[in-house]
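ok new one. same drill as before - structure tokens go in, u give me an amino acid for every spot. 374 of them this time. try not to just spam alanines like last time pls lmao
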């Protein structure tokens, strides 16, 4: 039956590939928009996830990074370092500022980084220096910051900072990340004996949650969160603040794409009406005819999925190279592919069922008379 369905499809190559491309383009819309949302969510937590910290310790009640204020006594870092199970600590000073990057203002995470920091450093220096001296700054080079060059000057805290390093991999379409020395941050912000966060590395990373609970029980006035949970809270906060519109657009576009899929399958089935009539006239039973319809639907959808996945992968590869300032990255996830596959098969078979109701009443003689009786 599968062979018969395949041979029947190939009889009209142009119609067959039109159906495949129609399904492929419809599913490309679904996969690409899912990849945009997944990529954006992944970028929003890049600094947290690439900081190297197993546990983030903040002021009591603070469980995320975006648009928060956290203040801890500097001695907290020393107390945490003495706890069993802790292999390293790095205190950070942190705030958010609107910075003029490449002529445009953009919200930026400003990190005050100790000279001997083990965690929280730029993940990849692509130009310049990795170490900071007084009056110097490292800028994560993405988006608007991509036009910044070494030796440029950026004004922060009422002072001019010289860009001595460019990093990559931490910024996103919403925020940039810049680094200055811990000493500069403390001096210009008039912060004394205070840190914003303490990053903690454990001896056994799989026990991060247990260590976070232990830190909270041993050090009063702090909230300790595993790196995974801290990133999860960060993603949730930012989604609540600004990604709901994107998620809604994604849902609506997915509905449109799937509707196009159903229409394509429905029309593709109807256009083979005479072919099904010939099969009935040659003695094919109705159940066999239905199997042919579903088999042809399977072939069209599976090839359409291949086209959609290829188009989405191609977009993910070429979009970052079309514009050096583009920060939006597409991330294709297994969950998205599985969801799209199952949904597309379900809706395609539903679309194929509609003509089957008419096929059930098909008069084989009508094919030879040139008349379709319903």
């Amino acid at each position: 039956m599968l062979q018969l369905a395949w041979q029947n499809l190939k009889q009209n190559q142009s119609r067959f590939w039109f159906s495949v491309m129609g399904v492929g383009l419809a599913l490309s819309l679904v996969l690409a928009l899912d990849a945009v949302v997944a990529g954006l969510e992944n970028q929003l937590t890049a600094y947290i996830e690439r900081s190297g910290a197993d546990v983030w310790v903040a002021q009591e009640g603070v469980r995320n990074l975006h648009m928060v204020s956290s203040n801890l006594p500097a001695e907290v870092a020393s107390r945490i370092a003495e706890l069993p199970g802790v292999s390293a600590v790095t205190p950070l000073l942190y705030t958010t500022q609107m910075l003029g990057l490449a002529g445009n203002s953009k919200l930026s995470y400003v990190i005050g980084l100790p000279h001997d920091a083990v965690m929280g450093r730029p993940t990849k220096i692509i130009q310049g220096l990795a170490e900071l001296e007084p009056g110097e700054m490292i800028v994560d080079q993405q988006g608007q910051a991509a036009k910044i060059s070494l030796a440029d000057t950026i004004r922060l805290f009422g002072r001019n900072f010289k860009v001595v390093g460019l990093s990559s991999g931490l910024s996103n379409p919403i925020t940039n990340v810049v680094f200055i020395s811990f000493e500069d941050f403390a001096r210009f912000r008039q912060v004394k004996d205070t840190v914003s966060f303490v990053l903690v590395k454990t001896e056994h990373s799989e026990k991060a949650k247990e260590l976070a609970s232990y830190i909270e029980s041993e050090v009063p006035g702090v909230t300790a969160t595993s790196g995974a949970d801290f990133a999860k809270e960060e993603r949730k906060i930012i989604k609540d603040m600004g990604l709901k519109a994107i998620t809604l657009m994604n849902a609506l576009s997915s509905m449109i794409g799937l509707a196009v899929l159903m229409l394509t399958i429905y029309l593709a089935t109807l256009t083979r009406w005479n072919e099904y009539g010939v099969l009935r006239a040659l003695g094919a039973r109705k159940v066999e005819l239905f199997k042919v319809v579903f088999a042809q639907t399977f072939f069209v959808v599976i090839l359409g999925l291949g086209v959609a996945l290829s188009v989405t992968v191609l977009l993910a590869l070429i979009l970052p190279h079309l514009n050096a300032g583009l920060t939006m990255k597409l991330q294709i996830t297994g969950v998205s592919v599985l969801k799209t596959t199952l949904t597309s098969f379900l809706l395609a078979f539903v679309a194929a069922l509609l003509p089957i109701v008419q096929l059930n009443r098909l008069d084989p003689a009508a094919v030879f008379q040139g008349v379709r009786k319903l």
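The first helix runs from residue 2 to 10. and btw Residues 2-44+242-369 form one domain.
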